[in-house]
Write a structure and sequence with these properties.
Elements (H helix, E strand, L loop, with lengths): L2 H31 L5 H7 L7 H14 L1 H11 L1 H17 L7 H12 L1 H16 L2 H15 L2 H12 L5 H22 L13 H12 L2 H30 L13 H12 L1
Helix pairs in contact: 1-7, 1-8, 1-9, 1-10, 3-6, 3-12, 4-5, 4-7, 5-6, 5-7, 5-10, 7-8
Subcellular location: Cell membrane
Protein name: MdtM family protein
Keywords: Cell membrane, Membrane, Transmembrane, Transmembrane helix
């Protein structure tokens, strides 16, 4: 093996960890973006009221809020690897469980559990990349990861609308679950452990005091509120668009993704400007 091929092999091996994060994050986005064009059909198949269609996204986002407070302090004490591996496996199993869903209640529970992937990715995954690489490399990797993942809202609805003409929605969730398992296997073999102070006792009071101190800082508070209110219209549109556009006859599921483009462009324009 030449020195160049040796360096290339080591470099490729190192990049398998960010690749696992891309697959994991992209799959988490697809559970909403790929399925949304057919969510009305899902609600009808499960014999529920069509007004419940937005609840799917609401519960997914609620899952994304449920564990944010816990996973950071927990991974500081037990390590990043076990926490992120647990999250990836939970996500994959939640997607595969859709094969056995027979009621709207079961569907909503699975969507909530899928939403917890947001917690694991944002709280543990991105932090692990920052710790595993030097500052410049981590910035490049996270920027590349974010750019690739943002393709999901672009191609997800188009692909979902086309695929649902031939593939049952349960099978689409199962395919996403398989991608989740691929991400889990890559993380299992290629994710480094970046926390060395493992074994510390988990104290809820200490965690609470840390959060109180953080939110007393005006920059943290105003920044958090700005991000929340900035994303609120986008999330609301994603949740309600199937009911507004499909159920009320504005458009068919296939051209529906085009109506989400202005929302996506609007969300990206402040970043580009």
């Amino acid at each position: 093996m030449t020195p160049f091929s040796g360096r290339l092999s080591r470099y490729g091996s190192v990049l398998l960890f960010p690749l696992a994060m891309i697959i994991y994050d992209f799959s988490a986005y697809l559970t909403t973006d790929l399925i949304q064009p057919g969510v009305i059909n899902i609600i009808n198949e499960l014999q529920a009221d069509v007004t419940l269609a937005p609840v799917s996204v609401s519960l997914y986002m609620a899952g994304g809020l449920a564990l944010q407070w816990l996973l950071g302090p927990l991974s500081d004490r037990v390590g990043r690897r076990p926490v992120l591996l647990t999250g990836a496996m939970i996500f994959a199993l939640a997607c595969l469980s859709m094969l056995f869903v027979t009621s709207i209640e079961q569907y909503f529970v699975a969507r909530f559990i899928q939403g917890t992937s947001i917690c694991f990715i944002s709280t543990v995954g991105y932090v692990s990349i920052q710790e595993a690489f030097d500052e410049k490399d981590s910035i490049r990797i996270i920027a590349s990861l974010t750019s690739i993942v943002l393709l999901a809202p672009v191609i997800g609805p188009v692909a979902g609308a086309a695929l649902m003409a031939f593939i049952h929605w349960k099978l689409l969730f199962a395919i996403i679950g398989v991608f989740g398992l691929v991400a889990w296997f890559l993380l299992l073999f290629k994710m480094p452990e970046t926390v060395i102070s493992q074994g510390r006792e988990f104290k809820p009071g200490e965690v609470l005091s840390d959060f109180i101190a953080a939110f007393r800082h005006p920059v943290v508070l105003t920044g958090s509120l700005a991000v929340a209110f900035g994303n609120l219209p986008i999330i609301t549109w994603v949740a309600l668009s199937p009911v507004i556009l499909i159920e009320h006859g504005v458009c068919l599921p296939v051209p529906m993704p085009g109506h989400r483009c202005p929302c996506l462009v609007g969300s990206l324009s402040p970043v580009r400007s």
